[in-house]
TrEMBL record:
Segments traversing the membrane: none
SUPFAM superfamilies in UniProt: (Trans)glycosidases
Domain Glycosyl hydrolase family 13 catalytic: start-end pairs: 4-469
InterPro entries documented for this protein: GH, GH13_cat_dom, Maltooligo_trehalose_synth_4, Trehalose_TreY
Gene3D superfamilies: Glycosidases, Maltooligosyl trehalose synthase, domain 2, Maltooligosyl trehalose synthase, domain 3, Maltooligosyl trehalose synthase, domain 4
GO MF entries: (1,4)-alpha-D-glucan 1-alpha-D-glucosylmutase activity
Pfam families xref list: Alpha-amylase
A biological process term (GO) from this entry: trehalose biosynthetic process
Protein's recorded name: Malto-oligosyltrehalose synthase
Amino acid sequence: MTVPIATYRLQFRNGMTFDKAITLIDHWRALGISHLYASPIFAATEGSTHGYDVTDPNAFDVALGGREGFDRLSAALKAADIGLILDIVPNHMAASLENHWWRSVVEWGEQSPYAHYYDIDWSRPLTIAELGKSFDEALDDAEIEIRLDEVAGNLALGYYESNIPLHPSSYSAVLDGAPGTLGAKISALAASASAQEDEAFHHTMQTLVTGSSESDRKALSSFLAGLPVERVKAAHDAQAFRLVHWKTAASDLSYRRFFEVAGLAGLRVEAPDVFDAAHRLVLELVKDGTVDGLRIDHVDGLADPVGYLKTLRDAVGPDVYLVVEKIIEEDERVPASWPIAGTTGYEFIAALAHLFVDSAQAKTLDAAYADFAGSKDYAAILTDAKQLMLDRNFEGEIKRLVALAGSSVGEAYDAKALEQALKALITAFPVYRTYGTRDALGEDDREILDGAAEEAARTLSGDSREALDAIVAVLSGATEGDAFEFRSRFQQVTGPIMAKAMEDTAFYRYHRLLALNEVGGNPAEAEMSIAHFHAAMQRRAAEQPHAITTTSTHDTKRGEDARARLYAISEAPDVWAKAVARWHDMNAHLIQTLADGPAPELAVEWALYQALAGAWEETSATPDAEVLEAFKERFSAYVEKMLREAKERSDWSEVDEDYENAVQAFAAGLLSPDNKTFLNDFLETVQPFAEAGFVNGLTQTLVKMTAPGVPDVYQGSERADFSLVDPDNRRMPDYPAMARLLESADGFLFDTTALASGQAKVALTAGLIAARRASPDLFQDGDYRALEVSGEGSDSVVAYARRVGDAAAIVIAPCKVLALLEKGALERAFDAIEVSLPEDLADRSYRNVLQGGTVDAGLALHMRNISGAPYILLITE
C-alpha cells in the first residue's frame, strides 16, 4: 500500500473549483504535501456547499468544472508529483429529483430498476417529507396541483417549485375529460410506458408536447390546474409515494436516512449490483492511476462495513490507500479484519487534549462552572440527549426496530416491553455500533453488548427486563431472515443516535471547557495526562500506523488553534471564573427576561464567552468597527447553530424566535464598539491564554507531524485556524497571504510577530513535512517510545522517540505552559529539563532539524544545551 507523506484536505465548492485548485499546487509543493485529500467532487444537488448530497456518483459536478476541469486538475497534480485521495459517500445519496435514480423510484415505485438501490420499506408507500403541512391541508389551501411538466416530459404533482412525477399508469384517470387531442395522445403514450425505458418515454412525451400548438398546451395546463380537489387527491393516492409534512420525517419515514436528514436516502451497497453502479467512475479512476486513495464517509452507516470494505479492497487492489470516517470511543478498536490503513483521525484529536489539559485543576473548573451555570453533569446530559433522540428525532427508526424485534424474538413480548428494552439498551450503548454479520458477534462486540445490557437491565423490570434478554440473545447469536435484518437495523441506528445525542446535542449543552467538546472526545474526562497520550500513541503505532492524524476537519467544532487556546483555561480556572463573573455584571443590561427565563441563561453565557475567546484571532488590541462587524456576522451564525443544536429552548424544527433574538442581541452587544469596558477587559484577560495557545498550537503541529500516522493539513490550518463550527470552518482561506508568509520565512521563528502572523506555524509545517520526506520509513513505520523527563517544569514537557532500524527521531515539545509564560521567556523555563535516553538512542549524533547544527547525545539530553528549545526534533545523522 502506498502511504502518503502528508495530505492536504481541500474543501471543494464555496468558491473552490478544479481550476482554482490548480492555482494552489505551487503552495502545496512549497509545503511538501504529497497528496491532495479532496472533499466529494461528484455531482451533488444544485447549490450544495459540501458535496455529500450526491446525485450522480458517476459524474463530476459541473459546478466544479465537470470532467474537463477534473482532467486539467489531475494532469496538473501528476506534473507536480502530487497524488489524489478522494472522499466517497457509499452510505447515502440525495433524496432529490435531481438524482435520476431517486427520481425513477419516486415515479415508478417498486417497478423502478433502482427501487432496491435504496433502503426503503416497500410495505407502504414511499414517504416524501417535503410539505409544510399535511397533504390534505396543502390541497385545501390550493398549494398542490397537477401540472404538465414540459421540461421533464411528464405529469406531476406541483408544490411550489417542485414537480413530483406521477406514475404513467395514473395519467389516463387524470386526463379524463381533457380538452383537445393532446391529453388523449399523452394517455395513449403512457399506456405503453415502462420503468425500464423511462428515458425513451420522457423523450417521446417531450417531443409530443413541444410539437403541439401553444394553445393546446395552454388548454391542457389550464384543465389540469382546475381539476377538483377530489381528483387531485385520487391521483396522489394512486402513486407509489405519499407527500407528507416534513416534521413527520422523524416518526414516519419509509426509508433509511443519513442521521436525521430526510434529504439523504440510505444506499444498499451490500447488494453487488448497487455497489457496482455506485462505484463505476471511482473504480475507473483508481484503475487508471488517477486516484491513489479513498476516504470512506460514514462507514458506520453501512449494513455490513467489513463486507463492503473487503469488496472495495478487492476492487481497488492492495496498493490503494484506504481510510474510513469512524469515531472511536475511549478504548474501542478498529476491527482488525478491516482491510484499511485506519481512520480519519478523530481519536488523535482526543488524545492530543491530554497534553494540554491540566487535570490537577479539573475539580476547580468543575466547581466554577457548576457555581455559575448550575448545570447537570455531562453523563446525565448525554443520557437525556439520547432519550430525546429515541423518543422524538428517531421515533420512526425505533418503531421499525420494535416491529423487527417482535418478528425475531417471537410473540412472547408485547410492543411496549420491546420498545422499553430497546431504548434502554441503546441508551446504555457506550460506542457508536457493533459489527455483527450473519454469524455471531465477535468477542469485542459481544463484550460491548453484554456491558450495555447489564447497564440497561438496571433500569428495567418485569416483561421489559425479560424482553431485553431475548433481544440480546438475538443480537448475539447467528441470524437469518428477520433476525438478521433486526441486527443490521439495530447496528445502523445506534450510531446515528449516539452521534446526534453526543456531537449535536450534549456538546451544545455542556460548556465547562469547549476545547474538549470534540468528535471522538469526552468533554468531562477528569484524568488527563501525558502518560495517557503516550499510551494512545503506542497503541496507534501498533494498530493503525498509517491512519490519518488530523487536528482540524470540516466536522470539528472549532479550529485547531482555537482549541489550543481554550485548553489553557484548564490551567487557570479561577482566573476564568472570576472573569466570567465580572463580564456577567458588565453585560447584565444585555440579558433579557423572557417568560421561560433569562436569555441567555447562565450556561449559554459561559459558553459564549469561551467561544469568543477561542475564535477571536487578534487579541493584542481591540479591532476597528469594520472588523468587529464582520466577526459579528460569523459569530451570529455560530450562536444560531449552538442554540438549535442544544434543543432546549429552541430547535431546528421548533424555532423560538423570541429566545433566539434575545441571545443574538446579547452576542451582538458583546461585540459592539460601544461596549468598550467589556471588550478591553475581555481582551486583556484572554491575552495570556492566547499566548499559551500559540505555544500549544505549535506543539500540536510538531506532534501531528511526528507521531504515528499520516499528517493531514486541513485547508488554511497551515497558518492558524481560529474558525468556528461549519460552515465557518469551510470558508476560503487566504492562500496568497499564506504563500507570502512561507516564501518569506527564514527558518523556524519563535518570536511574537511570527507567532501572531502565523508564519511560525507555516514554517514549522513545511519544515516538518520536509523531515518526513527525508526519512519516510522512520515516520511511517517507526515504533513509538515515551521518554522520561525530569527536572523543574517536567510536567510541562512531552518527549518521545520514533525508531526503525538504525534510524531514530527524538521529539520534545512544551505543553501546559500558562504559568511558565507568566514568569518570563519560555526558552529559559526549561533550562533544568533533562530527557533520559535508552541505550539504543544514547551516545549518538543527531541533526537538529528545526534550528540546524548537530546534537551529541549521551544518556540524557539537557535542553539548555540544545539550540531552538523548547521545540526540538532531532533525527539521526
